[in-house]
Amino acid sequence: MFTADDIVDLPSLATNLCQKTNSVSAFLNGQLEEPVRQALEAYSKANPKRLKAKLVQNLNRIIAGQSIYETNRFQKVELGPDTKILLARKPQGEALVCLNRLLLEDAYPLGLSGNEKALFALRRQLISARQAIEALRKEMSSGDGVRVAANALKLGEYQRSLFNDVHDTFEALRNQDNRAPLSVADLPQALHDRFVGVTGKYLLMVYPKEDLWKRENQREFIDQVGKVYPNVTGTPVQLYHYTALLKDSYQEAAWYSLGAIIILVFVHFRSFSCVLLALVPVAIGSLWLGGLMGWLRVPLNPANIMTLPLVIGIGVTNGIHILNRFAEEQTPSILGRSTGKAVLVSGLTSMAGFGSLMLAQHRGIHSLGCVMTSGLATCMIAGLTFLPALLNLLMRSPVTTEQPSADNARSTLGREEPR
User: Positive or negative, the Cα torsion across 340, 291, 248, 307?
Assistant: First the structure.
């Protein structure tokens, strides 16, 4: 079991556990009790003796349980020879407690071990530095005479720059005026201008405790800080208002595109009923797309929200082509004819174009490709299945409905489309 004397570097150990610098630290952080975790985060204010006692108590509880070893967890930890031998035996009971302790000592050789472990870790670091120097000397001396001379010049320039920098640093330390404590006027100009404004006001930086990439956390943070200072600014505020402005802009663009499409379709067919029929694939496809996104838990984000006007503009063409053929033949059975095939191939080519975005490594572009491809697919399926069935139902209905005019839907070439 551990004792308080085994923790030889409490600041280093506390930093590793709080910041979860590796997989072992992340595991231990999750196993610690909440009061101990909070005390580690506020290490500068905590009582070191009490913190050591609580931390030792938690570590002994952890090593007294099941084996803490996992290959992925300790893959970056250099295990000692005793640890490897004991690990190969798959121990139980007291031997397992001893193994868990050795694993933690190997993971924190400078923070959680005795003097021998610390000296062993220092020796490993010195050996690593010597190997790096030998590799550098080998690289410097490789090649022909011209390359060796060039390497020597570069090394000489680096050494002179390093010595000059060290000399300037010691000169600055020697010439420091220690007659009075450091004041704001002693700060470098760049640092002074960053934290002190031209009006003499100081910059106050407030850091949130929650993840600000989540919009609900942004709203809560801005509301709380805004009650103290209404003119608060910074990255969270800019990001929150930027995403809101982007969302409103694309929603307005979707309404504008819908209005323009309604006007153009009405001018083409000169019938309000045809306008509604042309928009049926878009409406049904959008409903299917929304349900699919909700089922797969794909939210709208600043990257894929631009699909709103695009799906409306591209999806309405399916209904227009089908209504044009229906105006010529007065039969909704167009799936096996040229128009149905054209709508199908046109939709597939558009899906292939936008689907290529799904190969992108950028998550926003990938999301745009997924949503846009799904939206085109649902609008195409609705145009090829739901709209012909609706036209067939309207033709059988005894209620008289206004049919699309063949004169308005006539081909611009003045001849019938091939079938």
Answer: negative
